[in-house]
User: What shape does this take?
Amino acid sequence: MNWWRRLLEVWGAHGVRREREDRSLFDWSPDPVLALSCEGIITRANAAACRSQGCEQDRLVGRSLTDLIEPGDVYEAQAALQRAADGRATSVELRALGIDAASYPIQATLIPIVLGGHVGGVHLIARDLSAIRRAERAVATNSDRLRELYVVAAAANATAENQIAATIDAGCRLLGLDSGALYDAEAGQCVAGVGTSVPRSFGRLALATDGALALEDLRELPELGDEPDGLTPGAYIGTAIDVAGARYGSLCFVSAAARAEPFTESDRDLVHLMGALVGSAIERTHSRARLKHLAYNDPLTALPNRAWFAERLRDELALAQAAGTRVALMFLDLDRFKDINDTHGHALGDRLLRQIGDRLTTVVANEGLVARMGGDEFIVLIGHDPTTARLERLAQRIVAAIDQVIFIDGFEQYVTTSIGVAVYPADGGDADTLIKHADVAMYRAKERGRNTHQFFTASLGANLRTRLSQEKSLRRALERHEFVIHYQPQLDLPSGRVVSVEALVRWQHPQLGLVLPHEFIPSAEMSGLIVSLGDWVLETACRQVRAWEAAAPDLRLAVNLSARQFHHGSLAAKIGEILERTGFRADRLEIEITESVAMSDAALSVQILEELGRAGVRIAVDDFGTGYSSLGYLRRFSLDSLKIDQSFVRDVLSEPDDATIVRTVIAMAHSLGLEVCAEGVETEEQVAFLRRERCDRIQGYYVSRPLDAAALERFLGVRGIRRAVG
Assistant: This one.
């Protein structure tokens, strides 16, 4: 028995070590971490959590999570806790209550604590977002200040004196300082200013600098206060200015009191920019253009940005309204640009966007204005009463130009674009409506297969309103657990046994009853809800078929993935987590993707399918024959089976071409070592044909309609299933 005692000691030591590691991660995390019961009661808190609340752990334990959340966010916090308690890790942004009940933003990640296959509690990790929000506000403030400075420059009268006075006044206001002055080095004096006069010594301070010089507290530098009159400054910021390539003097701003907060980099940039503005009396027009470029041009591509485009569009619409002519918008979005960013990095993605901007500018030329809306979205404004034929030709040229190979660092990169077109006044009477409708048309172009263009129509507008309404209902349906899964059996032809079931989602609407997928899946795809819905379908179906394991130990499960799910990223890892949570065997799960999804980015599909194959999951290509097959890539895909689309099976007895296609697909699949499943089988004669051609499996109403879980249990329990195939 010594070996048995030794084994127990080893196991015990391993468990202790594992527990210590887990406790170390919990206790020493720099972020606040709470252990919660499934009802939201705090059972444990790490040191960071205690610091955030200004109390010891025993003051936190036993309290409800909602005590630490701002009242307005309590409902959202409870919903996130419920999702985690249901076994789904989730992340949500909330406002937490800290010391003295002061609220601050956090990113709360809630992770189920799984013990013995059951959720026994929830870990909450809180990431303080205060610094990020401050940085965002700083960026927004800097942008506003640049915009205001441009407005000041543009509004000033034509004389250099007015330009300088307006800029110094704006500088005092934007920096929150008392006085400002322009120092002429040759004259040795301040020649313009706002507020109390500034000593000459401060005018000389920044002469030797290339950027801006900032000093928050001058009280320890009394030698600078050598002027008998004027202000004795407590804080200073200034910059040297050049005119026609020669040093002219400096621009500086001061306050009587020392500054509590340090000057920021944006403060220095602002002062340096103002120096360039006031120092260009002769080159004032050039300086004004530079400021306008900073405020209205995209820094990455140098194209006009959203703000400049909006102004130009309003002007064009006003002209078109007066003349009774048309104006058109083209809204462009690059197809699967995110995959390039994720695969090759943002630096390469930025260079690609610059090249795309150059191509658009070249193709559009004098026909319109190209602007970047942000991210991978561009927009083109076409004035001068464009005809539909002219817009068709331009859209086709843009699609063809973007579709050409791009060389970056010697590597070939490919990207395509989807374009939506809206025309004033037929598709909208104002700028916002036109942009929205062009965006709607662009999404329709993506639905049609990408790399194409689509004009806005009234039906698309109606579909948009319907889709937006349905998106809200779908979100509520997910929260209220209104979705159900039906299962359609697949029969093995040689043995006549049910070997697999395909999971098919339905919406059990409280008013409309059972809603079929084609009525809500498109909205789920467009809104991105398909990812959450698909995860729920996969996990729920795995749990259900796992529960049938005793009665049907070899039953396989087939689940169809949408394009968004397939390309969402980390697919194999996500499926692995679901299999681990449900205890479902990987070799009994068959993931189905359509042919068009697989071939839309064949190189990326190869990578994803190889990862799934290594995880042990079976792969099937659904609706085979309806897409744009490439046998070369099909051979490279890690596949287990093909599903022949029902459109070929339906007329296999009456259409010789369909019969030939089915025979060819079966023979080709078998030559590649793949199984074949025929969909939409409804008659005995179709079964006989497929049996002769050595089809492996069949699925359709001949076998069974899709059934809910209870009905499928009865179906599987019926004797004589072999008789279903003769």
